[in-house]
Amino acid sequence: MIPLHTPVDDLLLTVVDVETTGLSVAAGDRVCEIALLQVQGGREVRRFASLVRPPRPMSPGATAVNGITDAMLATAPPFAAVLPAVQALLRDTVLVAHNAPFDLGFLHHEFRLAGAAFPALPVVDTLLLARTHYRFPSNSLAAIAAMLGIIQPEQHRALADVWTTWQVLRRFLADLRRRGPVTLGQLLAPRAAPASAVPVALAEALRTGKLLLLRYRSGTTATERVGAAAGALRRARLLLLARLLSPAPRRTPLPPRPHRRGAPLRRGLRHSRWLSSRQKRSLGPWPGFARAGSGGGGAARPAGETDSGPVPGTSWPADRCGRRRPQT
């Protein structure tokens, strides 16, 4: 077991990459190419790369990505034949891969099918380092290499990808060393950079001393200026300090809403009218009309009305508020 406090320069790193017939082990896809690059102290120790003949044909999607065809794999050895060479490079080392779960998932599957156990090794994932310490527009290996100015000999081939992954890791280590010594534990469990970390392009310009094209935006206008990165960082810090020290703007209180005189009275009148209409409906016929056989005075009962209301099939006309009253 390698101690977590081991300096990164003392580690034997093995960068690994595989090309496959598809994207899913569960769907039966297999490894069709493997490459390993072993480095220590910044120097290459040894490398291994080989095509692997899978027991299934290449999918059209995989061939479109990596350019490997079934004709290229016809004379390649199976994975069991290259297994001893792979095992020799996986002894007492630290694995490095970009999107390590993908590559190691296929390697675990191939080792199991070959009747061998995959060794328990610490794994450094450059994809996790990129997501933790940087803000690249895209975290694919090709996009990160392009942002860092790394020239890739070829894309989506195992040996070219392990070399690109190693160059990306070297850039990451150079940035991490500015904060202090880098150990294995820091690579296995990376911590997010502080909130004051500068963007990647600005950090690269600060390291190399190249000029930057800066665009300043204010409202709807924008101006451009070419200057050194150090000056841009200094101006950004001054602007941030000025904003923090400036007093907070005063907020003008809103004027009070004008009081409408008579509003409670109108609400009370509406409520009393609503109550009277409810009471009138519950009392039966409209007041002022004589009941049949009562002998009392008053106006005659309107047509279509009984003691309990209108005769079925007839209705009283409705007023503006939807209440139905008898016609006089």
Describe this structure in words.
The chain contains 11 helices and 9 strands. The protein has helices at 60-66, 70-73, 79-89, 100-113, 126-133, 141-147, 158-177, 184-188, 200-208, 229-245, 263-283, and strands at residues 12-20, 31-40, 43-51, 94-97, 123-125, 211-218, 221-228, 305-306, 309-310. The strands form 3 sheets. Strands 3-2-1-4-5 form a 5-stranded mixed sheet, with helices on both faces. Helix 6 crosses helix 7 (158-177). Helices cover 38% and strands 17% of the residues. The longest helix is centred in the last third of the chain and has 21 residues, at 263-283. Among the domains are: 8-188, Nucleotidyltransferase, domain 5 (2-Layer Sandwich), CATH 3.30.420; 200-237, no CATH class. With 328 residues, the chain is an alpha/beta fold.
List keywords for this structure.
single chain, alpha/beta, Nucleotidyltransferase, domain 5, five-stranded mixed sheet
Brief description of this entry?
This protein is of the alpha/beta class. Among the domains are: 8-188, Nucleotidyltransferase, domain 5; 200-237, no CATH class. The protein contains eleven helices and nine strands.
- The CATH topology of the domain at 8-188 is Nucleotidyltransferase, domain 5
Counting DSSP E segments of at least 2 residues, the number of strands comes to: 9
Strand order within the widest beta sheet: 3-2-1-4-5
Tell me the β content: 15-25%
Low-pLDDT residue intervals, each spanning 5 or more residues: 286-299
Sum up the overall morphology in one term. elongated
Name given to the CATH homologous superfamily of the domain at 8-188: Ribonuclease H-like superfamily/Ribonuclease H
User: SSE string, helix = H, strand = E?
Assistant: EEEHHHEHEHHHHHEEHHEE
Helix content: 25-40%
Class from secondary-structure proportions? alpha/beta
Mean pLDDT: 78
Assembly status: single chain
CATH class of the domain at 8-188, please? Answer: Alpha Beta
**Major sheet characteristics:** 5 strands, mixed
Cα separation of the termini? 104 Å
SS field, number of helical segments: 11
Radius of gyration: 41 Å
